[in-house]
From TrEMBL:
NCBIfam families: ATP_synt_epsi, PRK00571.1-3, PRK13446.1
Subunit record text: F-type ATPases have 2 components, CF(1) - the catalytic core - and CF(0) - the membrane proton channel. CF(1) has five subunits: alpha(3), beta(3), gamma(1), delta(1), epsilon(1). CF(0) has three main subunits: a, b and c.
Lineage, opening ranks: Bacteria, Bacillati, Bacillota, Bacilli, Bacillales
UniProt organism field: Evansella vedderi
Listed name of the protein: ATP synthase epsilon chain
Topology in membrane: Peripheral membrane protein
UniProtKB keywords: ATP synthesis, Cell membrane, CF(1), Coiled coil, Hydrogen ion transport, Ion transport, Membrane, Transport
Domain of life of the organism encoding this protein: Bacteria
Amino acid sequence: MKTMQANVVTPDGSVFEGQVEMVTVKTTEGSLGIMANHLPLVANLTIGAVRLKTESEVQLIAVSGGFIEVRPDVVSVLAESAELPSDIDVARARAAKERAERRLERAKQENIDFKRAELALKRAINRLNVATGGQ
């Protein structure tokens, strides 16, 4: 199968660079799968996993929003934050999920900052899914 260059970068630097057969991301308009020679496009990313498929494996990267730029031979993910499964501390991510759930419940009751609490919970769940391969 034909490959293309994929890059995942954050303001802190590169997280992934390599040849892949397919890139799958979650955009604000839905899931998007990209293979070599895809038409050029730019799309907003949501909290989710970037799935990078090579001939021998599938690599997941947790991202918290950003953009994807597609050219026929290169896919660039410009993420606000991105973490490889090996970089995610599962215990810390579980604790963040529990804090976010409590904050979300409080926000529902007090009718304040609901969106911020909801986003924190989505980020924590995404990190856990990527770290444990449950995406």
